Amino acid sequence: QTTTPEEISLKTPATPITRKPGITDVGVVALVPDRWKAFWETRHFILTGLSEYFPVVWCNPPNPWQDFWKNCDDSEFGKDSSLFPGLSVYQPERWLPNIGRPDFLSSWVGKSRLNRARNLLVSQGCRKIILYLWRPNFKAALDLMEYDLSCYHIDDDYPLLNSDQEQQVVLESDRETASRVDQLFVTSPGLLTKKGQFNPQTLFVPNGVDYNLFATPCTEPEDLAPIPHPRVGYVGMIKHQLNLPLLIDLAKRNPDLSFVLVGPRRLHEEVTSFISELLRLPNVYILGPKPLEALPRYQQHMDVSLLCYKVNAYTNCVYPLKLHQYLASGIPVIGSRIRSLEDFDSVIDLADTADEWDLCIKKALLPDNDLEGKAVKRRELAKQHDWNWLVEKIAFRLCHRLGGPYPERLRDEVRKSRMG
Q1: What share of the chain is helix, strand, coil (3-state, %, to 5)?
Q2: Which residues contact 36 (CB under 8 A, 6 or more apart)?
Q3: What distance in Å separates the CA atoms of residue 79 and residue 181, rounded to the nearest whole number?
Q4: Does residue 369 come out as left (phi exceeding 0), alpha (psi in the -120 to 50 range) or beta?
């Protein structure tokens, strides 16, 4: 068994974009909940993809006002031109921190930050500005900045992530943000059912995969090679939304199988407790966080992959980022019966009870398990969810909402990119 430090390692992009934006007079100001240099989430894939079409400014969250006197890291400010020519990172200045009260000062500081981010685009020649929100707490920006189109991307059921006291406040903010923007994007069928009613301009865009990265055969990593087969793997964030007691049960039932977890751990008391119990089992291996481009090397050398979520109101709105990464590898996948996975029951096995999970694992490991050619079907489904296609879908919706010549200009740019 090997372990790595708790902290989340820096994730680098798998496939850098070398082409400059094709539509340079439209810019995107993206308000995100985390810094550019963080564990890659849905917003990283979408915004870097959009930067191939439009200049994008990723706005790092401002530092708390209490940190005013600290030496803050401003190294992320400016263009990340080595990887994404169309992406700029705006790190709010120390004198524009996050201030909650008084309201007039909070609004002035917020407006100043937004205008500075907007000016980064204007200085590049952008005449149309898209305000792209990724959390309901950015709602105030709708009144603080000049823009031509606003959108809100919901990739989680944020109210359910908060305490009971905060749920109602976040729910009201979430509903108001969704109803006020010009365009709403949601990432799962559960969110579409729950939030789509807030805005008639709602588009379902699921999470995707860098298909070529995850489908191209890779060599086995050195730290995985000594672990005996059969390997039952989970590659992703280890968090309290996972059914960790189930994982412990399955590992105890199957001492002849190696259970391998690859990914950072969420700093949560429940996760820490179960990780400690897992580490005491001789057939459990926790390899820690890995760079994004290294994940296919681990994924491809598992024998079975697990999507072992708890089943509740929150997870029924989840669309696992790792779903299509798993499918692109072609190996068997077993998942909990959450809403987003039910649509893929033709290529993955769904289980409810521990006994069902146990049977599914044993079935997946049978030598003749792939008689129906499910490996090919898994890859075909993953390829249909490549990030390139999904981002293109978002870009076209944005251009249609802007109107005028933009849809046709985007069509021209897409034709150019496909021609090489």
Answers
A1: 40, 15, 45
A2: 58, 60, 76, 80, 89
A3: 28
A4: alpha
Q: How far apart are CA 279 and CA 283, in angstroms?
A: 9
What tens digit of pLDDT does each residue of 116-157 get? 999 999 999 999 999 999 999 999 999 999 999 999 999 998
Residue 155 CB-density burial (10 A; 0-12 exposed, 13-18 middle, 19+ buried): buried
| Residue written as token pair 């919706």 | 397
> What's the N-to-C CA distance of the chain in angstroms?
46
- Residue 110's identity, in one-letter code, is G
Q: Using CA atoms, how far apart are residues 237 and 39, in angstroms rounded to an integer?
A: 9
Residue type, 67: D
- Answer yes or no: are the C-beta atoms of 71 and 43 closer than 8 Å: no
Provide the residue type at 75 as one letter: S
Q: CA-CA distance, 309 to 239, in Å (whole number)?
A: 10
User: Model confidence over 168-187: pLDDT tens digits?
Assistant: 778 899 999 999 999 999 99
Alpha-carbon distance of 383 to 396, in angstroms, equals 20
Q: Furthest-apart CA pair in the chain: how many Å?
A: 68
